[in-house]
């Protein structure tokens, strides 16, 4: 369970989508990208702008909010979003055998859900996701207080955290925005904590080391 966190424009969605895309393209790994913000068409257009060809990754399915709402009404009727989404994902796991899952985004899910007891509700939701036995990427926007979510609990529940962020730098007489990436948590593993420049050039994401 990996949290991919960062501010708007830091390429969180593109980062997670690329992982599922190349796993589907090169290994045939079955993936499901659930977008609660962008439409399927918008996400595919974004992928194409980065040089990817979604139609070639047959094993990767994109599910957007409009389709998800329709399927939830047809199969489950009115339920809270945490419970309903978890049940629907379990159905996809049974039908598709998904190996990788991306949920975009936690913030959109919070907006759809009347969260009364965030610690209990999120713990239960994470446990439901773990039962899928799929590598899961949860995308979330970082608030200005430096935490990784509005309820200050997701960073403790996640097994790993990939932090994408941006920084303004002076370049001559102008200012430029540079992207950075860091692996700030990976449970049970000793790892590099440095923030490295992330270079994006068409279909290439390059992490610049020392």
Q: What do these coordinates show?
A:
By secondary structure, the protein is of the alpha/beta class. It has a single domain, classed as 3-Layer(aba) Sandwich (Rossmann fold). The longest helix is centred in the first third of the chain and has 16 residues, at 12-27. The model has no long low-confidence stretch (mean pLDDT 92). The chain contains seven helices and nine strands, in the order βαβαβααβααβαββββ. It has a nine-stranded mixed sheet.
Q: Give, in order, the helices and strands.
A: EHEHEHHEHHEHEEEE
The major beta sheet can be summarized as: 9 strands, mixed
Class from helix and strand fractions: alpha/beta
How many separate domains make up the residues?
1
CATH level 1 name: Alpha Beta
Flag low-confidence runs. none
**Rg over C-alpha atoms, rounded to the nearest angstrom:** 17 Å
If helices are DSSP runs of H or I spanning 4 or more residues, what is the number of helices?
Answer: 7
Fold-level CATH name: Rossmann fold
Mean pLDDT: 92
């Amino acid at each position: 369970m990996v949290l991919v966190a960062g501010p708007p424009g830091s390429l969180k969605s593109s980062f997670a989508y690329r992982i599922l895309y190349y796993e589907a393209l090169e290994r045939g790994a079955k993936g499901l990208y659930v977008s609660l913000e962008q439409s399927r068409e918008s996400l595919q257009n974004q992928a194409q702008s980065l040089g990817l060809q979604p139609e070639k990754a047959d094993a990767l399915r994109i599910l957007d909010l409009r389709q998800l709402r329709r399927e939830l009404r047809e199969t489950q009727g009115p339920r809270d979003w945490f419970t309903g989404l978890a049940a629907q994902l379990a159905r996809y796991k049974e039908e598709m055998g998904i190996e990788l899952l991306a949920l975009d985004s936690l913030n959109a899910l919070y907006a759809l859900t009347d969260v009364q007891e965030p610690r209990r509700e999120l713990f239960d939701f994470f446990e439901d996701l773990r039962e899928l036995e799929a590598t899961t990427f949860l995308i979330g926007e970082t608030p200005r207080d430096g935490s990784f979510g509005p309820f200050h609990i997701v960073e403790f529940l996640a097994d790993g955290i990939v932090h994408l962020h941006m920084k303004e730098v002076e370049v001559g007489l102008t200012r430029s925005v540079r992207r950075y990436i860091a692996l700030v948590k990976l449970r049970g593993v000793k790892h590099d904590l440095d923030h490295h420049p992330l270079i994006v050039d068409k279909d290439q994401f390059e992490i610049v080391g020392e």
